[in-house]
Amino acid sequence: MDRCHESRKSSATADMLRFLLLTSLAALVLAEPQPRYLEDDNTGERVVGGNVANPNSWPWQISLQYKSGSNFYHTCGGTLVKRGWVMTAAHCVDRSMTWRVVLGDHDINNHEGKEQYMSVSRVYIHPNWNSNNVAGGYDIALLRLSTDAVLNNYVQLAYLPPSGQVLPHNNNCYITGWGRTQTGGSLSAQLKQAYLPVVDHNTCSSYGWWGSTVKTTMVCAGGGSESGCQGDSGGPLNCSVNGQWVVHGVTSFVSSAGCNTYKRPTVFTRVSAYISWMNSIMG
């Protein structure tokens, strides 16, 4: 009798786990090639490669954290674009949570004295964002901070591109974040960076690459077997333009086959496609 009860119980548990897995994946993947978000959801499909950045060398990078119990946990990256505003991915914040932003951080497991902790007073998700269609675009959101950031050597505003600007093939860019250092590994405590050159749209949208999954409102970067996709969803793609670091992308998705899959570059929301929307929100 006990064995029968245990069997039914384990079967029900297995069914529930299967249901949860399927419903989770349904929101994350499309038909081949399959995109997958890069926020920290413990599925292990994360970041490879890169190296630890010099502390506070990307001073506009923020850690987006959610509250669970009495503690906050890192889930996504983001970019400080005005003293009271942070840019991140829509899929990072399209659920109701208590959020906070940490500026000036390097090691997210230790308080180093340079951090600024800000609560989020309001979340603005692009009105065309559809969480059931990762490849539909519009994966961008703005967070209004409860107080303005104090700018110093560790916390700076990002430079954003002019509206409509598209970078050429192989433009030098770096992705930054606290993402996983290997598939199935743990989050990196220290901010990492990885070199991901731009892949132009004609190449990225061609057969054998991402095809029609990528839109002109996106930026592809990386895609070689040797290049990792270090970083979290919502974090910046920092690109060198005329000697200046400019944030041209918001980390959106990678291939479900793995972060550094050949000819499946990391895909970013193209910031320059959303400048007018951002200005309309931030004033």
TrEMBL record:
Names of required cofactors: Ca(2+)
InterPro entries: Peptidase_S1_Elastase_sf (IPR050850), Peptidase_S1_PA (IPR009003), Peptidase_S1_PA_chymotrypsin (IPR043504), Peptidase_S1A (IPR001314), Trypsin_dom (IPR001254), TRYPSIN_HIS (IPR018114), TRYPSIN_SER (IPR033116)
Cellular compartments annotated: Secreted
Keyword Hydrolase: yes
The protein's enzyme class: hydrolase
Domain of life of the organism encoding this protein: Eukaryota
EC number: 3.4.21.36
SMART domains linked: Tryp_SPc (SM00020)
UniProt entry tagged with the keyword Hydrolase: yes
Catalyses which reaction(s): Hydrolysis of proteins, including elastin. Preferential cleavage: Ala-|-Xaa
One Gene Ontology term from the biological process aspect of the record: proteolysis
Transmembrane segments: none
Span of the signal peptide: 1-31
GO cellular component terms, semicolon-separated: extracellular space
Domain Peptidase S1: 47-283
Protein name, as recorded: pancreatic elastase
A UniProt-annotated Pfam family: Trypsin
Keywords: Calcium, Disulfide bond, Hydrolase, Metal-binding, Protease, Secreted, Serine protease, Signal
A single GO molecular function term of this UniProt record: serine-type endopeptidase activity
